[in-house]
């Protein structure tokens, strides 16, 4: 029989050991002064013999109330013995039970043992309540096995567990996760077979006497009076039982819910109703939570409605469960609605309510609603729960609202507020993860309440934040400081520091800390050694990396595939295949077989050495061992792809590339290799087609890839495609490098821009003049009608306060004129003159371009006159600009005249210094 019953994160049933006292509020009030008098009488040294004893007039019930009100185990124990010192005191098991519970919850096991022995001496027999108390406190102390041994003790004393004791046992087994054992014990109890305990494997002899707590338990079992068991009690103990307490049903429902046995939970709830036991809010909360946890939302809502039908008033926990349910479904609107219903129901949201609402709103980054909830909390006279503070801070930081995050913390983490070090650590980590080490530092060193002590976790998180911000000196300084503050570094401290120094390129410092770590009694794992090894590898300190492996062996740390793989990969990157093979053999000698990662490193080494046959053999080996999980990964395939490309083996390279595309594994490197291969073989159309495919896939480009395709477009003479690829680069926030600008110079020359203009740009770029990169890009975009982009690039430097040079003005005049803004181009020429910058031939060339487009014949004639008079040093580009300007004006006669003039001036005299200036290809 599996009793049918329901889950909410239940606490153990709140059953009072003394239900008859629950209505004694008047007695509690009248005895408060008596309780204080008892405490005062212990500390007063001036009490005379005539002073009346405050305990002399108390009845047993009043004594019980006083003992129940005392939470300190010392006060509780002293008060009991004061009662016992009265000549008229009658030993009372209820009093002993109360003090046993207080001692057990305080984990004062020796005092508990002495009190248990005292019970036996006084002839006070342990009752069901006594055993329920002992089972409860032992299980809460994490000694569930020892707690259950009390059942065997009960059996030896002939005491039959009542419903409260049985429910306590169920709670202990439930919290241990032994759901099947709990159900079996419950079924046995219901059928009167409470004495069948063998399935629990309870054995006094198996108690470890070396363990002090277990020794104490064995001593307890030797003591205790045996109450006489009547034949009637024994007979009743064997009879079937029926549940009567709502708390027992609650425990069962929660038990089945946590075990995932939903049918039994529902059946238990139904059995409870059939038995006439009225469910309380705890019951409904548990059932609602079970339904919500299993996404039975309609049933959960129906149960909520049934609460009102049954006359059970929902409490705050009920609404919290509903909020959690809606939150798990992402229904933030329902969460907020339920949050508002708490107040509409005459209740006040508790800390858990606020925490649920704030967490969900912060996850959705709903700043306005979060601040509304915070204001509501403050208006109610409460504080924002400290668990919510890191979550709210993270929301602000993720949204880039750093100032508001700082302001929020200043308001809610003042010096008077007690925030745990753990939550401060969470706040610091939120800043640190974004690289905001200064803000994290401000929180760490900020004002705290008097007597505050930072724990090791907070120090470790601050060190981590420094590490992410590459602040190695500050991190090490904090490490030195923490010891002076009485906080000793733990294993995590050393791991964080070693990792930080290794990543920041300071493996020597990391090694020093590794020695300190060992000197402090910690044994570093292979992970730390591998981080240090990788740090040396990146610095090119290969001998030191190898020494780390030797050090591991000396300290008894066994290297695994990852450690050997690092060394194999390190030498493979250098093309040192022999060294890679040495560590591969060493790895196999230590019983480790190479995995796909290690074999991929080998392929990398073979590829760098152009060892085709060996690389192919390893690649086939990867295909064999990795056939079940998709074969070689992208890295291995790219290594082979690169090797085939270097050897010009286009058929084999295409085969691997097609396989990568078929499996959707081709990445940026794959496309870059193929584009480079097609460019090398002058298969430019295929190269550009591959690039177009790359763009459609939405993969993230890098500067190397775009540079490769630019070469193809320039070689094809497809300058439009070249400019499009340049725009694609900027749209994807890929910054051009020096090679990119070299390609741009070639493209500008091929597009027809004058040699003088291109040479001027190139010289300015080599001089690293300010804003020249913008001018170069603007020139390229302007040539192919991308006027808005070109104008924006020019405006970016024209609006600056910096002084502009001749090159920047020349480009801007050309760009504005090309975009049809001739008047603005003329204004720039005037501004240039006002700043004392003398125009050169390129300036006049650009002015002619503007005059011709705008139909300004007078301007063209003026420059022509300056050329004829020798005021402007004429060159071929300037004459061609004059010819183009006259043609734009429709004066072909003048254009032909200038053409004859150019031939006469430039080509008639062999000694002439004029001529086209060739631009050196970079």
From TrEMBL:
Species: Rhynchospora tenuis
What Gene3D superfamilies does this protein's entry cite? Tetratricopeptide repeat domain
Which InterPro entries does the record match to this protein? PPR_rpt, TPR-like_helical_dom_sf, TPR_mt
Instruction: Enumerate the PROSITE patterns for this protein.
Output: PPR
Q: Which UniProt keywords apply?
A: Repeat, Transit peptide
**SUPFAM superfamilies per the UniProt record, alphabetical:** TPR-like
Q: Does the keyword RNA-binding apply?
A: no
Output this protein's name. Answer: Pentatricopeptide repeat-containing protein-mitochondrial domain-containing protein
Q: Which NCBIfam families match?
A: PPR
Give the domain of life. Eukaryota
Q: Does the keyword Transit peptide apply?
A: yes
Q: Where are the PPR repeats?
A: 92-126, 127-161, 245-279, 280-314, 315-349, 455-489, 490-524, 525-559, 560-594, 595-629, 667-701, 805-839
Which segments constitute the Pentatricopeptide repeat-containing protein-mitochondrial domain?
A: 545-659
Quote the Pfam families the UniProt record gives: PPR, PPR_2, TPR_24
* Transmembrane spans: none
